[in-house]
Hints:
The complex is a heterodimer.
Chain A: E1 2-5, E2 8-11, H1 20-27, E3 46-49, E4 52-55, E5 68-70, H2 83-90, H3 100-113, H4 119-125, H5 136-146
Parallel strand pairs in A: 1-5
Antiparallel strand pairs in A: 1-2, 3-4, 3-5
Helix pairs in contact in A: 2-5
Chain B: E1 10-16, E2 34-40, E3 45-49, H1 58-70, E4 77-81, H2 102-125, E5 132-135, E6 138-141, E7 147-149, H3 150-154, E8 159-162, H4 187-191, E9 207-211, E10 220-225, H5 227-231, E11 235-241, E12 244-249, H6 252-260, E13 263-267, H7 278-284, E14 290-295, H8 298-304, E15 307-315, E16 318-319, E17 327-333, E18 336-341, H9 346-357, E19 364-368, H10 382-393, E20 397-400, H11 403-409, E21 412-413, E22 416-424, E23 430-440, H12 445-448, E24 459-467, H13 480-499, H14 503-509, H15 514-527, E25 538-547, E26 550-561, E27 564-575, H16 582-601, E28 607-608, E29 611-612, E30 630-635, H17 654-666
Parallel strand pairs in B: 1-8, 3-4, 9-20, 18-19, 23-24, 27-30
Antiparallel strand pairs in B: 1-2, 2-3, 5-6, 6-7, 9-12, 10-13, 11-12, 14-24, 15-22, 16-21, 17-18, 17-20, 22-23, 25-26, 26-27, 28-29
Helix pairs in contact in B: 1-2, 13-17, 16-17
Amino acid sequence: MHLKVNDESLEVAVDAERTLLSVLRHELGLMGTKYGCGEGNCGACTVLIDGEATRSCITPVTSAGGREITTIEGLANGDELHPVQEAFVEHTAFQCAYCTSGFIMSSAALLDRNPSPSDAQIQSALSGHICRCGAYGRILKAVKSASGEGGAE
Amino acid sequence: MSPHESPHEVALTVIGTPRWSLEPDPRTPPGDPATLLTINDDGVITAFSGKVEYGQGIRNGFAMAIADELDVAVDSVRMILGDTNLVPQDRGTTGSASTRTVGIQLRRAAATARLTLIDLAATRLEVGASSLKTLAGRVVSEDGSHCVEYADLLSGQMLSVNIPDLVEVKAVDEFQLMGRPARRIDAISRVTGGARYAQDVVVPGMLYGKILRPPSYGAKLVQVDTARAEQVSGVVSVVKDGDFVGVVADREDAAEYAVEAIRARWDENRDTVSDWNIPALLKERAEEPTTLREDGDLSSAFFSAARVFENTYYVPYVSNAQMEPSASVAQWDDNHLTVWCAHRGPFAERDNLAAIFGLDTSAVRVITAEIGGSFGTKTPTVSHEAARLAKAVNAPVRVSYDRAEEFGWSTVRPAATFEVKSAVDAGGKIVAWDYTAFHAGENAFRGQRGADTPYDVDNVRIAVAASESPLQSGSYRSLGGATNHFAREVHMDEIAIGLGLDPLEFRLRNLSHARLRACLVAASKTFGWASREKKPGVGFGLAIGYDAGSFTAQCVEVLVENREARVIRVMVGFDCGLVVNPDGARNQIEGSIVMGMGTALWEAVEFDGGRVLNAGFARYRVPRITDTPEIEVVFTGDDDMPSSGAGEPGIVPIAAAIANAVRDATGTAIEELPIVPRL
């Protein structure tokens, strides 16, 4: 089938029942997207499909066919980090960072449709993600600073 | 990357004996001398440690310390961590001890290298070493007339030096990097998806393994039919060895599918212990308690006391539930085994695997990948399982746990029941303290941490008993420290309220420990404890704690609505001596508080017999971003005190502080976790 990942068009021969996560990690070697729970409860596997934050662990690969898929590896513009990535570095908004790709993808999608979200809107957009190291306060600050609201900070 | 892959040659090697304690410990033999630090002829510094990175930022902490001692930029230091073939022997990354033990030895190694560079420069420049100093990767003379780069000095050299017995490390006021906030050196790889965890390790020819799990702990395999599994496309082999049944396939989902296709009959353990009857069973099924301390005369103190208080407390099993489920890749080359895993004690894992397979330890290499959280566990059996399958199919195999396996087959923090009996005199001074803890799990020492009281009391008995555990008890952040503190600090409020005293005043009246007092005073001042305003549904609580050589106090505000408690803010006084990286330490303390908040309000492993009933995040509630309180940390430690732990102590008082705050809001005492607010 045909997949468009990080601006690249790819032909992959895979079983229809496989998840997008499995294909990204095992067929395409894109290891930045993580398996956390396999049930859509933790957010570690989040990618963008046509700009929408999507849990790849419960998304059949067939439903992503022909659509624009963006993973953490495709978020930066060459060496230039996405503002959300930059802000996560600046605020050390991670510890082990296993959940970080997912948080960054959802935050990028949020800022794309709402450049100046309130704290409550950020929290709501990220409430489906788990950071077991508990870096939530920093994540909130990072997303805030990457937004129109926090840009002046 | 090994230093040998670098196009540049190692020019200077610093050798030392690994240390496991601050001072040489006569009870434990020193390890073999090993390479702790090298500098290549291009000036690149590589340091070696058996510690591992599971998010606590130890790579960064070590690199900062070394860079500071050597007067170089932090990004010119590379850390090789947790590869048993490359790094010095180590006892594992536990007890918040890395900075205070290995950190100091690496600083001594770096200081030795710095002195060697100065000697090289003195010889080259034909001046006295005392007229030279180091600055920004160069040796320069005090008067500024000479300047030579480390790379120049090392070009063509092949030196090896031992750390002398006495080598002076820098004093606090000489630090350029330590003690200041800094970006982590691994930050970029962590935000771009580049960091490689055990779940991500792929080696050429690697296959995927999946293990058939029993329905409950202690179940014995009676009958198994793997015929359908063998037919699944992609399956390479179904491995059967007694109760151990696993599938190896060329794709992970094929292995998962095939395991589902195995038909098995099990003989399950008939024990009826469950999460609702275990609080009492822990005492009934306990061994004889070990007395850790016995001072004074308890019975006459209780007899003559003004008031006596007696309560029983309980904490349930909780799951570490770190974000990365356990994974391991095993590869056999003849009789040599290489394992890539997320074990926090790579040498212990190497020795364990060597013993299991009857190999010399030199035939096993354990390489630790990035670790996606640990908090004490990563399933201890995953590398063994991968190695068994890899041996059976004669190819490298990765075993990756799914979330249900992680909840069901990883270790859990032991449940515990506590009996506390105390007495006070008419002046509100504690005169007797009788404390017995019953911790699930065969290793009673796990429950000893934090069992002793830091308060002033002359008549005291502290006893800890190990009790039979229906689940697999294992390590956790601060382990017994967090649970023992819950019982003690909740009981302290029980007494204060019984006496009509302010919980802060009551604690200060019974606490002469200077460092703890300083934490308590700082936390309560920042919090505004004295001027707190009582409002409906709002409660205030505090607790103190000690762990891993550090001290802390926490003041909490909660809001109770609709029988749910919400933590609004937490003010923390924290003393871990010298703070190497304040931002890193804050990150750890904040994380400890968020994690401890989960144990206070929601987390408990539900089980019936040996079956775990809530093996998924949908039924095991953990803190989310919408739960996050405002957290402020005030460091009260003295820079001249050696660094002590920062990764764990933050968790020890938080559950009690929240429980005390909920009691303040509702008027109902909290005696077990997770807290159910009752108005």
